[in-house]
């Protein structure tokens, strides 16, 4: 049972990595991010979207731990 869980976790991690790779290939157009107080340099759209997803997850983990 423990081996099955490890294989399932490995498959999920590899699947997520493949998804992120394909997503970044499909969204490679540069986009500048304009915040109210700063304008960030242009980067690939996939970079901004994945960074926002990771930041949201970290904020959720932080909020859940308080």
Describe this structure in words.
With 66 residues, the protein is of the alpha+beta class. 70% of the residues lie in helices and 17% in strands. A two-stranded antiparallel sheet has the order 1-2. The longest helix has 25 residues, at 2-26.
Question: What is the helix content?
Answer: 55-70%
Query: How far apart, in Å, are the first and last alpha carbons?
Result: 33 Å
Arithmetic mean pLDDT: 90
The computed structural class is alpha+beta
SS field, number of helical segments: 2
Choose one word for the global shape: flat
- Biggest sheet record: 2 strands, antiparallel
The residue ranges in which pLDDT falls below 50 over 5 or more consecutive positions are none
β content, as a range? Answer: 15-25%
Encode the helix/strand succession as letters: HEEH
The tally of strands reads 2
Taking all Cα atoms into account, the compactness measure Rg is 16 Å
Sheet with most strands: strand arrangement = 1-2
Topology (SSEs and partners):
Elements lengths: L1 H25 L3 E5 L4 E6 H21 L1
Antiparallel strand pairs: 1-2
Helix pairs in contact: 1-2
Can you give keywords for this protein?
66 residues, alpha+beta, two-stranded antiparallel sheet, 70% helix, 17% strand, flat
Task: Offer a quick outline of the entry.
By secondary structure, the protein is of the alpha+beta class. The protein is built from 2 helices and 2 strands, in the order αββα.
């Amino acid at each position: 049972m423990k081996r099955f869980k490890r294989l399932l976790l490995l498959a999920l991690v590899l699947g997520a990595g493949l998804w992120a790779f394909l997503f970044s290939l499909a969204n490679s157009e540069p986009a500048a991010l304009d915040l109210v107080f700063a304008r960030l340099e242009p980067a690939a759209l996939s970079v901004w979207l994945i960074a926002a997803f990771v930041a949201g997850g970290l904020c959720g983990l932080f909020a859940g731990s308080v």
